[in-house]
């Protein structure tokens, strides 16, 4: 994949040789290709195999479970969290997720920072229970106050944003950069977004764009899209329709709905020159893909298409009404 990105970067600076008409007609742009789920399905199967592996009732594991349970019942908060993990994983006992969560909560209530961090994640992401963001924030902040890395990252990622106080924004950036420095790819784009939304001058916008580019080079779809948008509007980097089209094309291939919409928009407006990775797809096909994934801009464009009969589509009031309803539902909290 890195090779593909390198080739793409060269393509930004070079013209694309014309292809024979018959060959171009036979090809489909990769942005329109169905997403290959086989690898993802195989990965999910491996994860399920680990989660659902047989319980381990070997004598050593049973003895360890009994020893840990005795310590937990005496009030040892570290043992309580360890017991929760044993119940969750089926080590020395049958699996019991509810009992495991109860012991985790008991450990957290006893002041154990690691348990508070894990409980915060469980409530925030709905792991082993329904999502409850209030309790997720409560327990995550408890753990963060004790310096637990996971809790600080959960607070930074989920409960501190560009509308938070300057102190909280600084805290969030510190921990996001900490995780980015340890190779957590998804932190790159998040840092870029927060810096871009709060930038006061060109130097700060340039710094934000640098983080977007790190995400894009790692082929993170939001990063690809944000690099494209930055080139489109000239924020943090000189404006360039050609570069914007190229990066939107990559984002669309990565199945980013905003990337599909951006790619369609520039193609419809005739901006950016030729496509790099295949024959130019019809903008309508890209808008439709993005709209089917809930992208609002794409849905709004489809409504106009069906209202007025644009993009080689016949006017269709029924389809326009259908997409209006989908837009209404998308805007409903």
Describe this structure in words.
By secondary structure, the protein is an all-alpha fold. Helices cover 69% and strands 0% of the residues. It has 18 helices and no strands. The protein has helices at residues 2-13, 21-26, 38-51, 59-73, 77-89, 97-109, 113-125, 133-145, 149-158, 166-181, 186-198, 202-217, 221-233, 241-253, 257-269, 283-292, 296-308, 317-331. Helix 5 runs antiparallel to helix 6 (97-109) and helix 13 (221-233) runs antiparallel to helix 14. The longest helix has 16 residues, at 166-181. The radius of gyration is 25 Å and the shape is elongated.
Topology of helices and strands:
Layout: H1 2-13, H2 21-26, H3 38-51, H4 59-73, H5 77-89, H6 97-109, H7 113-125, H8 133-145, H9 149-158, H10 166-181, H11 186-198, H12 202-217, H13 221-233, H14 241-253, H15 257-269, H16 283-292, H17 296-308, H18 317-331
Helix pairs in contact: 4-5, 5-6, 6-7, 7-8, 7-9, 8-9, 9-10, 10-11, 11-12, 12-13, 13-14, 14-15, 15-16, 16-17, 17-18
Element order, helices and strands? HHHHHHHHHHHHHHHHHH
C-alpha-based Rg, rounded = 25 Å
Number of strands: 0
What is the end-to-end distance?
37 Å
Unreliable parts: 1-25
- Assign an overall shape: elongated
Number of helices: 18
- Biggest sheet descriptor: none
- The mean pLDDT is 90
Please indicate the percent range of residues in DSSP E strands (runs of 2 or more): under 5%
Class by alpha and beta content: mainly alpha
Q: Could you estimate the helical fraction of the residues in percent?
A: 55-70%
């Amino acid at each position: 994949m890195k090779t593909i990105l390198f080739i793409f970067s060269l393509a930004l600076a070079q013209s694309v040789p014309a292809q024979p008409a018959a060959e171009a007609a036979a090809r489909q742009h990769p942005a329109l290709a169905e997403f290959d789920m086989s690898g993802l399905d195989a990965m999910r199967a491996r994860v399920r195999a680990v989660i659902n592996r047989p319980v381990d009732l070997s004598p050593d594991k049973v003895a360890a479970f009994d020893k840990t349970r005795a310590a937990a019942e005496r009030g040892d908060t570290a043992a309580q969290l360890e017991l929760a993990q044993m119940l969750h994983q089926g080590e020395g006992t049958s699996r019991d997720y509810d009992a495991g969560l109860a012991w985790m909560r008991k450990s957290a209530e006893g002041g154990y920072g690691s348990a508070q961090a894990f409980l915060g994640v469980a409530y925030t992401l709905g792991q082993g229970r329904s999502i409850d963001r209030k309790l997720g924030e409560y327990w995550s902040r408890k753990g963060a106050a004790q310096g637990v890395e996971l809790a600080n990252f959960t607070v930074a990622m989920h409960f501190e944003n560009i509308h938070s106080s300057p102190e909280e924004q600084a805290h969030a950036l510190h921990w996001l950069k900490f995780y980015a420095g340890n190779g957590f790819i998804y932190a790159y784009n998040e840092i870029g977004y927060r810096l871009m939304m709060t930038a006061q001058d060109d130097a700060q916008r340039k710094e934000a764009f640098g983080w977007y580019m790190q995400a894009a080079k790692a082929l993170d779809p939001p990063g690809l899209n944000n690099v494209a948008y930055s080139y489109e509007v000239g924020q943090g980097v000189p404006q360039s329709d050609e570069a914007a089209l190229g990066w939107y094309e990559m984002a669309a291939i990565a199945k980013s709905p905003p990337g599909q919409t951006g790619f369609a928009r520039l193609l419809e407006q005739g901006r950016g020159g030729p496509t790099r990775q295949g024959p130019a797809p019809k903008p309508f096909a890209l808008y439709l893909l993005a709209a089917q994934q809930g992208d609002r801009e794409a849905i709004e464009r489809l409504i106009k298409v069906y209202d007025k009969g644009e993009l080689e589509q016949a006017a269709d009031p029924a389809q326009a009404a259908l997409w209006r309803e989908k837009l209404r539902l998308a805007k409903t909290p």
